[in-house]
Design brief:
Number of domains: 2
Distance between the termini: 34 Å
Structural class: alpha+beta
Number of strands: 11
Radius of gyration: 21 Å
Helix content: 25-40%
CATH architecture of the largest domain: 3-Layer(aba) Sandwich
Largest sheet: 5 strands, mixed
Strand content: 15-25%
CATH class of the largest domain: Alpha Beta
Order of helices and strands: HHEEHEEEEEEEHEEHHHH
Shape: globular
Strand order of the largest sheet: 3-4-5-7-9
Length: about 270
């Protein structure tokens, strides 16, 4: 990672360290309790992860706008929901930084639910393409993830309607114990896709690895991450390429594949 990308990462981490105060109460509950209608009825937030993720995004966008203003950066939001990245920051000399906002929940004390880090096809491989991406992938100086990890509250009052905002304190938040992290995308990437037949890069599920950026590519570097995922094939992709099987499916088989290529070139 270049020096200016590292400087951006350090600034973003410093900013995100204050985000928790904006989204949870002193006892760790999410500050969002529900939706209010004109009759002052409060409808508790459903526990659906997509709803929770969208509400967190809406809460955090002003924080990112303030960050951009303080650092003389232009903030460009994704034009479409499925475009990469969620946020593009551009400094005064035109240098661009990609930031994706990702949320997941704790399955237990040590493990997070599956989280994906964007496609490994399309714009990721054709890095001059403008399809499904705010700017071509190659134009970004760095690619970063702002992650949100939370615990789903078992005692949440999902579906409850509180008549009158004076009963707000009786509505339990659907999530609690919210933690933020900022890492380069490659540092938290797994060597397997997100789930099923998806063509998205999976993230590591270890909470300690997510928070510290200690995924399997973290010690190998950006170049190995890029090469691995730019040439990764699912079973369907291998069949379409008339191959008997994908050339590799994890880092161990990737290195074996690379050694075979070197042996062929040296023969």
């Amino acid at each position: 990672m270049t020096e200016i990308a590292q400087e951006f990462l350090a600034s973003l981490r410093a900013e995100v360290s204050s985000f928790a105060d904006a989204v949870h109460t002193p006892d760790g509950q999410w500050v969002v309790k529900g939706f209010v209608d004109i009759f002052r009825n409060l409808y508790a937030v459903p526990g659906d992860t997509k709803v929770i993720s969208k509400l967190l995004e809406l809460m955090l966008f002003p924080q990112f706008a303030w960050f951009a203003g303080r650092h003389a950066l232009k903030l460009v939001l994704s034009r479409e929901q499925n475009h990469y990245p969620d946020l593009s920051f551009i400094d005064s000399d035109g240098t661009k930084y990609a930031v994706d906002l990702k949320t997941t929940y704790r399955r237990n004390q040590d493990t997070a639910n599956t989280m994906t880090l964007g496609a490994f096809t399309g714009y990721f491989r054709d890095r001059s393409s403008a399809k499904n991406v705010t700017f071509p992938y190659d134009e970004y100086e760095g690619h970063f993830v702002v992650g949100v990890v939370y615990t789903r509250a078992d005692d949440a009052t999902e579906g409850q309607v509180a008549q009158g905002l004076e009963r707000l304190e009786h509505v339990q938040s659907v999530i609690r114990d919210i933690v933020f992290f900022v890492q380069p995308k490659f540092a938290i990437a797994s060597d397997t896709p997100g789930s099923g037949n998806t063509k998205n890069i999976g993230a590591v599920r270890s909470l300690s690895a997510l928070l510290s950026g200690a995924g399997p590519f973290s010690g190998l570097g950006q170049d190995v991450f890029d090469d691995y995922w730019m040439h990764y094939l699912t079973a369907d992709m291998a069949r379409a390429a008339e191959l008997a099987a994908p050339p590799y499916s994890n880092l161990q088989s990737y290195w074996a594949f690379k050694r075979r290529l070197l042996d062929k070139e040296g023969a």
